[in-house]
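Researcher: We're teaching a course module on how sequence relates to structure. For the next exercise, students receive a sequence and then see the predicted structure as tokens, so they can try to spot secondary structure elements on their own. Here is the exercise chain.
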Amino acid sequence: MIKGQLKKDIECIAGYYGFWTQATKLAEEGAELSAALCKMTYLNRRVAKGRRNIRLIAKKKEQAKDDFLKELADVLVVAEGIKFLLEADLFTGAEVSGNMRAKVQRQLERIKEEVLAEEE
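Model: And here is the predicted structure for the students to work with:
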């Protein structure tokens, strides 16, 4: 849970730029997070396969992890701002909450199916 001055600052930024700019920014940050995750996964696989230049790969892997964590923070900051904007708009916020509930239910059903399949 984000609290205090950080929360106020995020809300200030979100309020200044508005929903659509923040939504676009979230898509951009999400793409950057995806790229960072792909790079980190690639480097992890190279280490797992015992490639040469392990020290160089390990260094790149550490940088990739740092990049991933920075991009994750960016996504979470913008998402928190969007959450604030949605809470201020009861109509849109209620729609999004309903969609979130539906998504959670679908995912729980998938997990249940996987668990049942593993038990067979």
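Model: If you want an answer key for the exercise: The radius of gyration is 19 Å. The mean pLDDT is 91.
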